[in-house]
Design brief:
The complex is a heterodimer of chains A (67) and B (267).
Chain A lengths: L8 E2 L4 H23 L12 H5 L1 H6 L6
Chain B lengths: L9 H4 E2 L3 H39 L27 H31 L8 H23 L13 H56 L12 H34 L6
Classes of the chains: A mainly alpha (67), B mainly alpha (267).
The complex binds zinc ion.
The site of zinc ion (ZN) has 4 residues of chain A, from helix 3.
């Protein structure tokens, strides 16, 4: 402990301001999670098994049903 | 605006955050969390995965792409090795873990954007850790306890669609119940006080997810003779991988947040 740093009081971010980011970044992020977690398993956007095989071990160890 | 680090008036320390900086920190936190999760999964998870695949190759269980296409009781055409096991357990695991970390980091930062300044008297850093802890509980632990992770060689291919839908469904239900519980705790706080409203909401969440988990169909697809200690080893490694990921995201994000806020400017 050296000196006290002033911890700022949290000011909530208006929901209106979050929503556009939430929709945009949220959808992209969910697509990424889908590709690691489920693509070419129960569902498939692309044909074949390359994506599945590529992320196979991560999918298992992150707890997703794999095959 | 000459706001310096020594500025200490309430106006200067009332920190306003932009969603954009939160998303950048989320991405960085996801990168760190993903790399740490990769390290953990490689050290503690891969031995179990390799053991499960060698059991699968020598007999029971169904065919699994990426294995030696030699001796299948599968009846289908020989599977080509699209991605080698050596790559799956190293580069593939790393890329999968980091990609997942980046996506999760972004979603985490969005959840934090909603939580920041809305959860009672928690400091910004404590808010970040609370989001990570509750996220791990609702998105990882509860779905895991309902539908535990399985190593290769476990799982009937005929039910993959059903199992995937139910697993994702459980994540959605658990998360929805968590958000409901938080809203309920906030609504009850004026009447019951912070402590009892939180206890009531927590118990409500626990009871409801338990009922849901009990009502949803279960799957017992571990092949006869499959070693129980291997299932255990794999599942502990799986929970640990996610714990490392979420802890890495929470702590890294908290550090970046704190650094940003204590610069004493709008970030
Ligand atoms: Zn698999």
């Amino acid at each position: 402990m050296t000196h006290a740093v002033a911890i700022p009081t949290p000011v909530s971010i208006p929901v209106r301001q979050i929503l556009p980011y939430a929709v945009f970044a949220g959808i992209i992020s969910l697509i990424v999670l889908y590709f690691v977690g489920a693509e070419q398993g129960a569902l498939a956007v692309f044909e074949g098994t390359t994506v599945h095989e590529f992320v196979h071990d991560a999918r298992h160890l992150l707890g997703f049903p794999c095959h | 605006m000459p706001l310096t680090e020594t500025e200490s008036t309430p106006a200067a320390t009332a920190a306003t955050l932009t969603v954009r900086s939160l998303l950048v920190w989320g991405l960085l936190a996801g990168l760190v969390g993903g790399l740490l999760a990769f390290g953990f999964a490689y050290a503690f998870g891969e031995p179990a995965v390799e053991r499960a695949i060698s059991i699968e190759e020598t007999g029971t269980g169904h065919a699994h792409a990426g294995e030696q296409p030699a001796e299948h009781s599968h009846g289908e055409a020989e599977e080509e090795e699209v991605v080698s096991r050596a790559f799956q357990s190293t580069g593939g695991l790393g890329i999968g873990a980091v990609a997942y970390g980046l996506g999760l980091g972004e979603l985490f930062s969005l959840a934090f954007a909603f939580a920041y300044g809305r959860v009672g008297s928690l400091s910004p850093r404590a808010t970040a850790l609370a989001v990570a802890g509750l996220g791990y509980l609702a998105v990882v632990l509860v779905p895991f306890l309902t539908y535990p992770a399985n190593p290769p060689a476990v799982g009937n291919p005929d039910t993959i669609g059903q199992r995937t839908a139910l697993f994702f469904g459980m994540i959605v239900i658990s998360l929805a119940l968590l958000v409901t519980a938080i809203a309920a705790a906030r609504a009850l706080a004026p009447k019951l006080g912070g402590w009892w409203s939180t206890v009531a909401a927590g118990l409500g969440y626990a009871v409801l997810v338990t009922v849901v988990a009990k009502l949803l169909p279960g799957f017992q697809e571990v092949p006869d003779g499959f070693p129980g200690d291997l299932i255990w080893q794999f599942r502990v490694a799986s929970l640990g991988t996610s714990a490392v990921l979420w802890t890495g995201i929470g702590l890294t994000f908290a550090a970046l947040l704190h650094r940003g806020l204590t610069k004493g400017r709008t970030v």
